[in-house]
Design a protein that fits this description.
Elements (H helix, E strand, L loop, with lengths): L1 H57 L20 H6 L19 H23 L9 H4 L9 H11 E3 L6 E3 L2 H15 L18 E6 L4 H14 L5 E5 L4 H10 L3 E5 L2 H5 L13 H13 L1 E6 L2 E3 L5 H10 L1 E10 L6 H6 L11 E11 L2 H15 L1 H4 L19 H9 L33 E3 L8 H4 L4
Parallel strand pairs: 3-4, 3-6, 4-5
Antiparallel strand pairs: 1-2, 6-9, 7-10, 8-9
Amino acid sequence: MKVNSLTHKFTSLPSQLPILYLKLLLRLFLRRLFPAILLVVSLYFFTANTKKKEYEQSTQPTITTTVCLSDCDFIPSTDEFIRTYTPKTLLGTKNDTTRVEPTVERIRLLLEKVRSKEDKYQSLLDTFDVFNMTNPNISFKPYLFGSNVDEIKILYNRYIKLMNDNKTIQIDETFIDYLRKISSYLSDSLKNQRTNIFPVKCSRKPVFVLASDGGFFDGLQGAIHTLDTFWPNYTIIVYDMGYSPAQQNLLKTKCKQCTVIKFPFASIEKVAPHIRTLGNYAFKPFVVQDALRRYGQIIYGDSSARFNHNSFDPVLYDNYIRGFAARELPGHFLPCYTRSGAFSYFNQSYTNYNDIYMAEANFLVVTDTFLTRLIMKAWLMCALDTDCLITESTKALCSRTSAGVHRYDQSAMVIILTHFFFQGNRLGWLNGNANDPTPYDMFTSVIKHLGDIKRGEREPNYLSEKKIP
């Protein structure tokens, strides 16, 4: 009986094999299924959590990991790149007579105005390494850290010529094409349309420049606080416009990355006594120029500047092309904040600036380039001449409601910049409520608020309470 039973089991086994195989496969599948499900679920929650953290971090000011090299030997050469660049945004091709733009005539008048004041002021400007129009090849001096003074001389001699009467300036027609390509290259970035990108070998550590007198020292501490937060151990140049001994000692002992430079009032006031009146901001172009000649590339801020990001690389890279970057104030139109005499000084009419925005001079990125040399010379000349900077006998005129407030350094700066940069397209920004940022606006490089201006904000105890390791 037992033998028969065993025989029956073994003889029936072949018929059961498919079922056994299926059960075995199912068991193996289920054994692997649950770990697989667990793995997928774990990966899902991990990814979701990571994305949440990335989003949370993206909404906060973060410190980037971009490496800036103090020993970078990169000397930019932009001439060939700009001349061969194919622009997508063709600025200045519509002959808009209601808005100022670079023309041979406007640039000629500007430089002839500068030349007319040069003999009076050049001996002072020599001490700030500002070139002399009567002898540019000798007077163009290299600034530190990567200035391409050879290219600056080439571009100047190509586009600008002082005639034998030592008064008349001749501007080469091709200069306007060169300026149009610069403006177009910068504006092409707004919609990510650049047809080529200027190659940057390496990036140097930026040098930050601050300036104030003793009355704004508590505000200055706030600016230093934000630099300590976002740019720790980076060089800060502080221009002393009148600090007390206690304030000087506080900077010396509690701001190890700070270098304090005494502003040279005595040498400037011999030809421009109004330099002592800080409320007209005649000092600011000199702070910028003095720092620029020492370091070649600077980020300038008033004591009210509060840095909230360190993603300056796009601005710094574009400045090899542009040279001078500010921030526009949409809705603040230049004639409404500028006395009409300032326009007249530059042989301009305020009516052609009704659609031009004011720009801030309290937060600037300035790099030594051919254009910067021209811009700074004109801005410095204006700062020395009260008929340009202050023009007290006139008032602001504009087609809109005038604020009746003259912006001194800012007004002159924007008027000068419009000689070398085309304006952004009309009402192409903020859903058609604002003009596109002008090429000298930092927003053409990076659409981020890299800093804010906090007037009246003070941190009187920051340095005294700062822990020094």
